[in-house]
Amino acid sequence: MSITLADVEAAAERIRGQAVETPLIESPALNERLGRRVLIKPETLQRVGAFKFRGAYNRLVQLTPEERTRGVVAFSSGNHAQGVALAAKLLGIPAVIVMPDDAPSVKVEGTRGYGAEIRFYNRLTGKTREEISAEIAAERGAVVVPAFDDPHIAAGQGTVGLEMVRQAQARGDTLGTVIAPISGGGLLAGIATAVKALSPQTAIVGVEPAGYDDTLQSLQKGERVTVKPGAPSLCDALQSPFPGEITFPVMLKTVADVATVTDAEVTEAMRYAFSVLKLVVEPGGATGLAALLAGKVQPYGEGATGLVLSGGNVDPDLFARVIRGEL
Amino acid sequence: MSITLADVEAAAERIRGQAVETPLIESPALNERLGRRVLIKPETLQRVGAFKFRGAYNRLVQLTPEERTRGVVAFSSGNHAQGVALAAKLLGIPAVIVMPDDAPSVKVEGTRGYGAEIRFYNRLTGKTREEISAEIAAERGAVVVPAFDDPHIAAGQGTVGLEMVRQAQARGDTLGTVIAPISGGGLLAGIATAVKALSPQTAIVGVEPAGYDDTLQSLQKGERVTVKPGAPSLCDALQSPFPGEITFPVMLKTVADVATVTDAEVTEAMRYAFSVLKLVVEPGGATGLAALLAGKVQPYGEGATGLVLSGGNVDPDLFARVIRGEL
To answer: Disulfide check for A311: which of A144, A285, B86, B133 has CB 3.0–4.6 Å away?
Structure first.
């Protein structure tokens, strides 16, 4: 089961008027700093502050009336949680979200604010989030909404790439490279599907945080590799220990390179986004910018570099420490 | 001497390719909170992090070759300073900037970073900034570039309004109200000139910080009023004690209402911009949002509310204190 451009285009139709069509913006200061033109896709400006609303809405709007009555269950550190919670609220569907007990409180509060019921779990002990979700699904007959390993979710996230290509074209630009973060690969596989279909010469580059380079290792090995979970990382949103069963084959076919960034590179990028771009970006959302600022992504081909800033849900205290240079 | 739509359109031609055409963005969460549609113009994403680059470039690019050689001098708490400094750098013009000794260090560093020479003054004692600037101008034969009371400056700032009307039209929207902050009135007079010419039914609303409601008082009295300088305010960018000689008559003809906001309302708006909009906004830049969140601006006529977030140059320490709720 793979996804196609037609799936992404259908998703774009379904989310129209619900998701924000985020702009494609350019910073002359960033261009000058990098010596290359960068077209920024700030999904920080998306509903719930991250691209995740796109996939969640695309999945939930396709549930049958009977499925909608029984509700949905999802597990997530916070952005998928909020995406599912808001989509469920808009569609009148009950939602239970299984969240790690160390999820950023801004994400917990956001999820609760959209009316979802929250169940906490511990990342390292007790039942896994998959087990808890399966139990809830069994009890209630609820549909499990995966964070990435679902063709409708990945197709929804792919609308980011569809918009990037079309917005670049409307400006008279082409994209030599598109950079986006990888957790389970829903965003990158979705983007790659759309971008490669519309602009085959564009190189797709993923970025993972240090300690979670499962996709890089998997691509090198040609099969899905699981990394040891629990490595410390500021990137709460990117801690999937393996690429998805559906997303990995897409990435294997389309991804030109994967960069890995450290926490120090990520906080440097968050400070740059604050002080120069004037954008609030969470750690995981800043990984692409971090890779660029650290010189870890070469420019491929002709044309501008498309950069996805995937989310901006960061606790005020963490953000304050980062911009003060304490982290 | 007044300004016309043709002046603003000419300014738009001059700054094309130099200034950023900032997008018009919409936040469903803000719309829901206010019960009205708001189209946000984030001039935080402009070069130098504030709209001021528009007017400065429009003024400097019109200097004669001989004037360019002698250089320019400007006084500003920081955003006009950076706008003039960058425009001067791009055009190869020497620039001296007279800044208050309590200007935010992010603005001082920015101005210095663009290669301008800085002279400090004290807001309350010693020579005024006007006197110091006049001396430098006399010594060097430099051209003084006013922050607001200049038709080319105001016309340049007016391109914000021109873009807002056109971008709203391109989305199929009309603007019932446009809200922007007032210091000396260059931005608001420029915006009003463009907006009223293209969309006469749109109401123009200004916002001033408490203690600096000189424009409100002037409009009520029908003549320019000077307020006592030195009132404490977080809005370093909006501390002009009087409206401009050129900008005031424009505002008198066009402005429907002026709201006044407190520091507490401003910090609340900055927190909202951080946590919901994911935008970094400085105190003065957040006054329009503050007025909306505080219910101080009624919706006029049909159509959406256009909101200018005019700048995002804020020291990390101040921003950290605001988002932590310490201010």
So the answer is: A285
